[in-house]
Amino acid sequence: MLFALDPLFLGDAGTLEILLIVILKVVVAFGVLLVTVMLYIWWMRKFISDMQNRIGPSRAGPFGILQTLADGIKLFFKEDLIPNKSDKFVFKLAPFFSIVPALLVFTVVPVAGDFSSGGDGTVTWFGNKTFVQLADPHIGILFVLAMSSIAVYGIMLAGWSSGSKYPLLGSVRASAQMVSYEAALGLALVAVLMKTGTLSTHSIALNQSGGITDWGLVVTGFVPFFVFFIATTAELNTPPFDLVEAEQELVGGFHTEYSSIRFALFFMAEFMNVITMSGVMVTLFFGGPSGYYPPLGPAWFWGLLWFIGKVFIFASVFVWMRGTLPRPRYDQLMDFGWKMLIPLALGWVMLLATLDVFKDRGYDSGLSQLLILIISVVTLTFFAGLLMKSIAIGKHKREIEGEEVFG
Amino acid sequence: MADQLMTDDQDEQQNESAERVFRRGDDSAILRLAESEVEAYTPDDDRRMVINMGPQHPSTHGVLRLSLEMEGESVLRSKPIIGYLHTGMEKTGEQLSYLQGPTNVTRMDYSSPLFSELAFSLATETLLEIEIPERATWIRMLMCELNRISSHLLFQATNGMDMGAVGAMIYGWREREEVLRLFEIITGLRMNHNYIRPGGVAADLPHGWRDDVLKVIDKLPDRLDEFDTLLTGQPIWHERLQGVGVINTAECLALGITGPLLRSTGYAWDLRKDMPYLQYDQLEFDVLVGTYGDCFDRFAIRLNEIRESIRIVRQILEKMPQGDYKIQDKKVTPPPRARIDESMEALIHHFKIFTEGFKVPSGEVYASVESPRGELGCYIVSDGGPKPYRMHIRGPSFTNLQVLPHMLQNCLVADAVAVISTVDPIMGEVDR
């Protein structure tokens, strides 16, 4: 039961009514996401151009706001080239592996609703209580992970099927980078799930509606958020972790051979992912649509406003990074993922789990908790030290080997 | 000098490693295959492939082409292929009179055009055995140092872009634009100035030039600090550039590498200090050297050379003498416009200089200057006529390009981009 948790299905609404509301939600979610992507691309270009003393798009529509639309129309009418050496079926299929997961992830993000303290996160439409999200499956957050894993296929197959060398390098990078950062992403998630005790995105957001101290960011102790944020950047292939595209190195990476609307689909998917993953981050760590609700107008509207505001901040941070940071090298990125982020996330999960277990066992006085915390931190630091030492030895060995190679 | 500080041990080590430069066969860094063979070549080991980088690759600085033999992402052997911008400029130089010469050579290294003009003019003047007025010398120095600033700023821009820091690209261009605007005020053009000519410079500095120059060089130090904030202190930046593309002094000397590449290895070789031309011996400035000979050193040297050049420009502003901006030798300098109306001789001179050109005593000469990329030399053979019998430019970009295969060996594709970027070749000068 994919929709199971939504009160819409528990109430006494008729089948037709349910069908209409769900279809309405699908249409609105689809439309809103596309328009948001359009606006986001415009905002990104304006923001970056402002950081770089440029004007940015200014011709199409007021402030160039229709630039993305114009680009889209142009790309639609361009010739669709399929390289002779490519695996044609996979080549055509790959863009859809990218765009469909990007669209689907958005369905489980709670966008609005009454998430004020004590609210139940619902909205009443046409006399029916429902969630302002397309679906709220029991496995909500796992669905996000699953979809982002499928998106890897899109990029990998695109590069592999192009029958060209640069895309091949790009797709090799993609598979390695996205798979390894998925591990860090998952471990960071575990911390949140452990604290909230549910996988449903709606319940996770609802758990945090009590104020900033209830936010996942604070409850899990900041570290999982940073791990999640960095891993997301790598997972989304946004700069500085855009090694899969890496214009300066691989020309265009996996999409070098793509043209026309297939090319546009990849980019649409990329920017759509930025927005939806910002939404997921807001849901997990920043209380989703919760915030201060003035006693004015419908509560779901304030929820929507809070949600948009938070997502906007995150999406802008991604743009900021895009405009500022140099790109790390491929091996450095992998080192960072496996040797820093994953151990850090893993250690943090163990720390949180230890504290929770001892709390359950009755050691919940401040002093005993502090003692447990100190012991855990010392243990973890010891193991971190061991890890660092082994990394240093490995590096040293590599250097020696390198010398031998060079003579 | 740095080489004197080096111990014998280090010397020996360096000489040993310099041998990798001369290696042949499979362990050579160079993929010794003709272009046609490269296309047909399939390595025995199926983990290897030959990948073609350029001439349309986004980060090969114009039209450099590299054939890379790679295993996964690491480069084993490589071969730079040049000639995509070849326009026969050296041959053209033989068809142009000495007065037209600078117009031609200025198009070689288009990011530091004044240096080619300077080298050509110095060579011609040596053959003519003329002394140019002091003010002309100082104007030349002023322009060259400003050009060094603009050229190094272009490097900062492209280097930042190649590393993925797109912001740095625009900042570099913004600052370069200030200098180019200054050039436009002084020479009338932003590039390819044809300003430094045999016998002096094309025109005197315009009214208010001192304020214009001051305005730019007062603004620059703060802007350079922005580069430090954005790039120099960046951990990612360190990771990307430090220890990448390492080369040592012996290897540089074996390959004839000059400029920031040579200085990055700790060898303080700068023609302005070691073989002073113009009036550089009257100026106070430091020659910057690196320690490790890696990409980061080259980046840092170029960034700080901008600061040194600003220091030099300030001294030039103080010491700029009054006087003529070109030599008053009627055989070399065209007469001023007003004289043509009054004097028959002036008209004849004017006509002769612009049609036939002035005759240069036969002989051969090599004059070299320190361009932003290294030793830029001009070799002229004259047979006594008004056009050079042979004109050859020793382009530092061309010579420096030789180092690529050795720097690229065993590094990743991303490093290859960093290495090409910090070697900073200008393809116009490579292909000539």
The CATH architecture of chain B:
Orthogonal Bundle
Main CATH class of chain B: Mainly Alpha
What's the β-strand tally of chain B?
8
How far apart are the termini of chain A? 65 Å
Order of helices and strands of chain A: HHHEEHHHHHHHHHH
First-to-last CA distance of chain B: 33 Å
Largest interface: A-B, 35 and 36 residues
> Which percent bin holds the helix content of chain B?
40-55%
Helix content of chain A: 55-70%
Please describe what this structure looks like:
The complex is a heterodimer of chains A (about 400) and B (about 425). Chain A is an all-alpha fold and about 400 residues long. Chain A has two domains: about 80-325, no CATH class; about 350-400. Chain A has 13 helices and two strands; from the N terminus they run H-H-H-E-E-H-H-H-H-H-H-H-H-H-H. Chain A has helices spanning about 15-50, 65-75, 90-105, 140-160, 165-195, 200-205, 215-220, 225-235, 245-250, 260-285, 300-325, 330-360, 365-405, and strands at about 125, 130. In chain A, strands 1-2 form a two-stranded antiparallel ribbon. Chain B has about 425 residues and is mainly alpha-helical. Chain B has helices spanning about 1-5, 10-20, 35-40, 90-95, 100-105, 115-130, 135-160, 165-185, 210-230, 235-240, 250-255, 260-265, 270-275, 295-320, 335-340, 345-355, 395-400, 405-410, 415-425, 425-430; strands spanning about 50-55, 65-70, 75-80, 195, 200, 365-370, 375-380, 390-395. In chain B, the strands form three sheets. Chain B has a three-stranded antiparallel β-sheet. A three-stranded antiparallel β-sheet of chain B has the order 6-7-8. Chain B has a two-stranded antiparallel ribbon with strand order 4-5. Chain B is globular. The interface of A and B includes residues 239 and 248 of A.
